[in-house]
Specification:
- The complex is a heterotrimer of chains A (752), B (80) and C (164).
- Chain A is an alpha+beta fold and 752 residues long.
- Chain A has 20 helices and 27 strands.
- In chain A, helix 10 links the parallel strand 14 and strand 15.
- With 80 residues, chain B is α+β, with helices and mostly antiparallel strands.
- Chain B has a single domain, classed as Beta-grasp domain (Ubiquitin-like (UB roll)), CATH 3.10.20.30.
- Chain B has a five-stranded mixed beta sheet.
- The mean pLDDT of chain B is 90.
- In chain C, helix 2 crosses helix 5.
- The mean pLDDT of chain C is 97.
- Chain C starts with a strand and ends with a helix.
- Chain C has two domains: 77 residues, Beta-grasp domain (Ubiquitin-like (UB roll)), CATH 3.10.20; 76 residues, DNA polymerase, domain 1, CATH 1.10.150.120.
- The chains are: A alpha+beta (752), B alpha+beta (80), C alpha+beta (164).
């Protein structure tokens, strides 16, 4: 029972309450310490020299003048980063992405780095480094990169997943295929077939805190790294592997994280900071500028997608296909594969085939962005679904309800679904007052669905009971959305104590065993499950201590509402012992009280959402405003409803920005033209309305409380929800995201 | 039992979408597939998730595979 | 680069620092005075994370030189609370879950304080436009606007009581 993870439908006292967040006080007073807020005695300032070219051979780097500048303590190039990767191409790509090795592969690729006594000296020294480039042909567009005559970026890339295996290098690193049934036979039965091609532009996670770290390496091979990250264990492992260090000698402490959304699941300049520190034998602080964040961290893929859906007159989809071409940046990635897996995950399909192509381009190495790859695939699918419903003369919500996946449906990506929430979110859409609100001229309403897998993975945590009966929970999965408070709630619930008695901290890499990153919406799911088990184990220890104090068998002790209770009439003289009573007496009953759990949190429950969006389009300018927005999503169980709503709203806002404004704009020269928040415009407060939310709770059978992940799904539907709303407002079908004013105007003019 | 493979994993077993394997645990399944299809060891290194009756297991190879279970092998993917 | 000696008042206290002439006030506050509650999100005045007041006026400290602060009064997030008593905005940001990662929070609090000093009863639209210079990527602004609305209400109640 202690370690069981099955859903039990238990009654809650703390779970579901809206308690005050534990990190709130530090965050409203300015005391919270982020990546750039740490200071070490004698620290140097690190800066990085970056390639201005999209693709260039680095013939020579002359650092001699920079090295001679007074105040410069270390200069490094790829020569200072020997290859320890032992034939592991993925690791070598990671190293090569941190610092170019002979070739600059995109505008912004690091080529050298400097540590100096202060920022102005470091910047001055940067200008003294002379790099001799030979410019090579480049390609930044995903479709162009797939052409026969495209410049081939890596001579070692061969397309995996095609027969016969190609002997020639290309920019397509992998083809992957999913699905079941016979799509040709399915389309033959269809009364209506809609086929459409879509493009989505590259966007950035846009976290407000740039990448930042403070690295300190000693000549004996030990070191410390303070860093803003979604996974300090992963950072520790990668940095140690790339620098030839023992993992256990590098202690990584995660700072407060100022937003990540997937962009901080990967290392970008942390090994550089450590290498500079190693060479200078001084601590080095390295903070990216906003321009560097845009040019040289990991935005999401730009894509090109074809979707074909066939349906019969009675409204059933009989066949569906998609081809997803995803640009992964300068190194092979696995992003189209997720697009192909998620394309039709919302639907119950007998015949479905999806194909993904991973494409290398001269752009920064793509990283995860909140439900990575799913929003683009959803945009293509959900736009087409609306077109099919229209062609059939059916209401788009009814059409989706008729075709929605349910328990027992074989997912288009393979497995069979357990209990899921797509049907209930659609039914909730149908009932929602938003659907009946009146629209004015140039206004339109659209809706769309979205899916995300959710992850579990390796997790460890420790509960320590203090001498006064208050409790510390240490977890190793980074808090990105309030999980410290949610985990304290879980711990309090299990121990039968108040929320205020528990304080949760993120342990460093030396304090806990490995924890996977906070990605895949796993934070509260996996750490929560680990905390439940650790708390139940702590209760067992507490019962044993009470039994020892009472000199009765432990079988006669129960734990009830925060107290050890002696069961049975023969013990009726024994007053219940509180957690504080037991904690005060640990030295005489067997030592300190703690509870641990180290495990793999399997059984993450998939999550679905349906969004409703109203827009108003100005036909004169093509400018579009979202005037009302509703998110309906299955959370499994909302531990802290405020934080669940916060995830719903934040994801929707990011999706709206993607739908209407945000895009990487490259010039003919392959340089990024808008690496700043002025020209890469994310939604501001006056761009958005209040975002209504409705939390559904369809329990995940594999979590004691029924929790599913909630963080990512909310960014999946907005692209199509906005697109469908625009289409309903002004009668043009938008197939290119973002639907910026020029694109909408062009579509309106083409229609007229 | 019949094991379904999806996406890039199909290439590792000679472009088949279904293979027959006798295995009582994920570990046994992976061992058998690696012996039969040497390329599958590369897939394991890249990460394979195993869906048993719809539940996805990513790391714990001791997980038992019940008789007549639906087993689907998926590529391991990244999240945000 | 030559430097200058700067005498200012920060959050009510007299503070002196020396900085190069080309250093931003943001860098001076963070690195010389130690007020790291002032955040850098962009360094180009686009994100508002470094918002402070300079003689009562809301500015991005990344767009002001350290030397320009000489003789001026600076207000930062660190000066919002009155001893151990939080400013009502700080209270409401916690109560209404108006923050997630929190990196933008100091800037929002300073900007919202300036708004409410000038306009004790702002409409939703006025709040949204007053805070449009502060970027938040986590919340979609929903709970931030609600926290500011709640604070405005609290403060109006308080001033009514006082004036009675």
């Amino acid at each position: 029972m202690t370690d069981s993870t099955s859903f039990t439908n238990q009654k809650f006292k703390v779970i579901g309450q809206r308690v005050r967040r534990q990190d709130g006080m530090d965050k409203v007073t300015g005391r919270a310490k982020y990546g750039a807020d740490a200071v070490a005695p004698g620290q140097l300032v690190g800066v990085i020299l970056r390639s201005p070219h999209a693709h260039a051979k680095i013939k020579k780097i002359d650092t001699s003048r920079a090295e001679k500048l007074k105040g410069v303590k270390a200069v490094i190039t790829s020569k200072d980063l020997p290859d320890y990767t032992n034939g592991n191409r993925d690791l070598l790509s990671m190293l090569e992405n941190c610092m170019a090795r002979g070739r600059a592969l995109y505008d912004g690729h690091a080529v050298a780095a400097i540590a100096a006594v202060d920022a102005s000296t470091a910047r001055k020294a940067l200008k003294l480094i002379k790099v001799d480039y030979k410019i090579l042909p480049h390609v930044t567009d995903v479709d162009a990169a797939m052409q026969e005559d495209a410049p081939v970026i890596h001579d070692w890339v061969r397309t995996i997943g095609v027969e016969p295996a190609p002997s020639k290098a290309s920019n397509v690193s992998m083809r992957s295929e999913f699905g079941h049934g016979d799509v040709d036979a399915g389309f033959a039965k269809a009364d209506v077939i809609i086929e459409k091609s879509y493009k989505t532009e590259q966007t950035h996670q846009g976290y407000i805190e740039p990448h930042a770290c403070l690295a300190s390496m000693s000549p004996d091979g030990s070191g410390e790294l303070w860093v803003t990250t979604q996974g300090h264990f992963a950072y520790r492992n990668w940095c140690a592997q790339l620098l030839g260090l023992d993992m256990s000698k590098l202690k990584v402490t995660s700072s407060e994280i100022g937003g990540g959304f997937g962009g901080k699941t990967h290392i970008w300049m942390e090994p550089i900071a450590l290498a500079l520190s190693r060479k200078a034998n001084r601590p080095v602080k390295l903070v990216m500028s906003r321009e560097e964040v845009f040019r040289a961290s990991g935005p999401t893929s730009s894509t090109s997608i074809d979707v074909k859906i066939g349906a019969t007159k009675d409204g059933r989809i009989v066949a569906a296909t998609s081809e997803c071409r995803y640009q992964g940046g300068a190194f092979p990635g696995a992003w189209a594969v997720i697009g192909a897996m998620t394309s039709f995950a919302c639907y119950d399909l007998e015949n479905v085939k999806t194909v993904g192509y991973e494409v290398v381009c001269n752009r920064p190495k793509v990283a995860a962005y909140r439900a990575p790859s799913a929003p683009m695939a959803s945009f293509a699918t959900e736009s087409t679904v609306d077109l099919v419903a229209e062609a059939l003369g059916m209401d788009p919500v009814d059409f989706r309800i008729l075709n929605a996946a349910k328990e027992g449906t074989r997912a288009s990506y393979g497995p069979t679904y357990g209990p899921i929430g797509i049907g209930p979110t659609l039914e909730a859409v149908k009932k929602h007052p938003h659907m009946r609100a009146k629209l004015k001229k140039n206004q339109g309403r659209g809706m769309a669905c979205g899916f995300w897998f959710n992850f579990g993975g390796q997790t460890s945590c420790t509960i320590n009971v203090a001498a006064d009966g208050t409790v510390n929970l240490s977890v190793g999965t980074i808090d990105v959305g309030g999980s410290r408070s949610s985990l304290s709630m879980i711990c309090a619930e299990e121990l039968g104590i108040s929320y205020e008695q528990v304080r949760t901290h993120i342990g460093d890499t030396a304090a806990l065993a490995h924890n996977d990153m906070t990605d895949g919406s796993r934070g509260t799911f996996a750490s929560g499950m680990a905390a439940i088990i650790a708390a139940r184990r702590t209760k067992e220890v507490l019962k044993l201590r009470a039994a020892t104090a009472w000199e009765i068998p432990v079988e006669d002790v129960d734990w009830q509402a925060g107290y050890a209770v002696a069961l049975g009439d023969k013990h009726s003289n024994l007053e219940p012992l509180s957690l504080a009573d037991i904690a005060a007496n640990t030295e005489n009953t067997g030592g300190p009280v703690a509870g641990h759990n180290e495990f793999v949190a399997d059984g993450a429950g998939v999550s679905f959402a349906s969004h409703i969006c109203d827009v108003e389009v100005d036909p004169e300018t093509g400018s579009t405003r979202v005037i009302r927005y509703t998110v309906i999503q299955d959370a499994g169980k909302a531990i802290h409803p405020d934080y669940v709503e916060g995830q719903f709203q934040g994801g929707a806002a990011q999706g709206i920005g993607w739908a209407l404004n945000e895009e990487y704009i490259y010039g003919e020269d392959g340089r990024l033209q808008n690496p700043g928040f002025l020209d890469y415009r994310i939604p501001v407060c006056s761009d958005l309305p209040f975002i209504d939310t409705q939390i559904l709770e369809i329990p995940n059978p594999n979590h004691p409380y029924g929790v599913r992940g909630v963080g990512e799904t909310s960014i999946v539907p907005p692209l199509a929800a906005v697109g469908n709303a625009v289409s309903n407002a002004v009668g043009v079908r938008m197939t290119h995201v973002p639907m910026s004013p020029p694109r909408i105007l062009a579509a309106l003019e083409a229609e007229a | 039992m019949e094991v379904q493979l999806s996406g890039p994993l199909r290439a590792a077993v000679g472009n088949q979408s279904v293979v027959s394997v006798e295995a009582r645990s994920i570990r046994e399944l992976f061992r058998t597939l690696s012996e039969r299809y040497p390329e599958f060891t590369v897939s394991i290194a890249n990460g394979v998730a195993v869906a048993i009756n719809g539940n996805v297991y990513r790391d714990d190879w001791s997980t038992a595979i019940p008789e007549n279970a639906e087993v689907v092998l998926l590529p391991r993917i990244q999240g945000g | 680069m030559s430097g200058a000696h700067v005498s200012t008042t920060i959050n009510g206290d007299a503070v002196q620092f020396a900085c190069p002439n080309d250093e931003s006030l943001l860098d001076a506050l963070r690195n010389r005075v130690g007020l790291t509650g002032v955040k850098e999100g962009c360094g180009t005045g686009d994100c508002g994370a470094c918002s402070i007041t300079l003689d009562g006026r809301l500015v991005c400290s990344c767009l002001v030189l350290g030397v320009e602060a000489d003789g001026k009064e600076i207000g930062t997030v660190e000066g919002l609370a009155d001893g151990d008593k939080l400013h009502p905005l700080q209270e409401n940001f916690i109560k209404h879950a108006a923050l997630q990662c929190g990196i933008c929070t100091p800037g929002f609090l300073v900007a919202a304080k300036v708004l409410l000093e000038r306009n004790p009863d702002p409409t939703e639209q006025e709040i949204r436009y007053a805070l449009a210079g502060n970027l938040c990527r986590c919340t979609g602004y929903d709970k931030i606007v609600r926290a500011v609305q709640a604070t405005a209400k609290d403060l109006r109640k308080k001033s009514k009581k006082k004036s009675r």
